[in-house]
TrEMBL record, chains A, B:
GO terms for molecular function: DNA binding. PANTHER family: TRANSCRIPTIONAL REGULATOR, MARR FAMILY (PTHR33204). Residues 3-115 form the HTH hxlR-type domain. It comes from the Bacteria. Gene3D superfamilies: Winged helix-like DNA-binding domain superfamily/Winged helix DNA-binding domain. InterPro entries: HTH_HxlR, WH-like_DNA-bd_sf, WH_DNA-bd_sf. The keyword Cell membrane does not apply. PROSITE patterns: HTH_HXLR. This is Helix-turn-helix transcriptional regulator. Keywords: DNA-binding, Transcription, Transcription regulation. It comes from Dyadobacter fanqingshengii.
Length: 117, 117
DNA sequence: CGGGATCCTTACTGATACTG
DNA sequence: CAGTATCAGTAAGGATCCCG
């Protein structure tokens, strides 16, 4: 394919940006975890554990830590007995909402297309 | 959080749909591969190998096969010497374009936010 | 050029048990 | 409840060589 040099640069940058996104959202669970928190606004550890079918507490703990490091979720310890920990999306994390919504819609369509044919 | 039962059902379905999407798009490379094909419309094996920084031919081969199975990409063998294989998105694959674009934009923003601070 | 086959290493993941 | 620690299996990924 023949492209203007400027076009090629543009595509390279776009590719890099996509990679950057995927570096943050990598792994089997991250998107699902974000979705869970996103759909409910605030969510406790054990709730997310239930929402995300199949995840282990170890994985959830690890993934949440990474998401927190990337400033996508905020962790709040509530002073209850026993202790409760609440997760919510940061402002930055909330900017993923559009993508989550699209993925939700796309997932439904895909299921129809592939599984339902 | 107190929710109407209907709300809970809705969230569960949304979570499932997200999972379905991620099942198809799993792995470190799929999104990047789709992006490469998407941005260039048509793309050869070795071109994608170059676009997606760090991927090995084995992985690319495997991932493309899976994407083909899920009817997201179409594989065309061109009768050149030596052989050329061209990949393009199917109609169904093209419905991911919106998500790719959002991920591109989000990646740029995220880089500013995290790396550039 | 576009892969497949092989070997090898590391990363991911799950199950279970345990702690504050 | 919200994790951590340990162990152990599986899968992902890379490097290299090979073939039509």
């Amino acid at each position: 394919m023949q492209c203007e040099p400027l076009q090629i640069d543009k595509h390279k940058k776009e590719m890099m940006a996509v990679q950057d996104s995927m570096d943050v959202l990598n792994g089997k669970w991250k998107i699902s975890i974000i979705s869970s928190i996103c759909y409910y606004n605030k969510r406790r550890f054990s709730d997310i554990l239930n929402d995300v079918a199949g995840i282990s507490n170890k994985m959830l703990s690890k993934e949440l830590k990474e998401l927190e490091m990337n400033q996508l979720v905020k962790r709040t310890v509530l002073d209850t007995q026993p202790i409760t920990v609440q997760y919510e999306l940061t402002e930055h994390g909330l900017t993923l909402k559009t993508i989550i919504n699209h993925l939700t819609d796309w997932g439904k369509e895909h299921r129809k297309k592939i599984i339902g044919e």
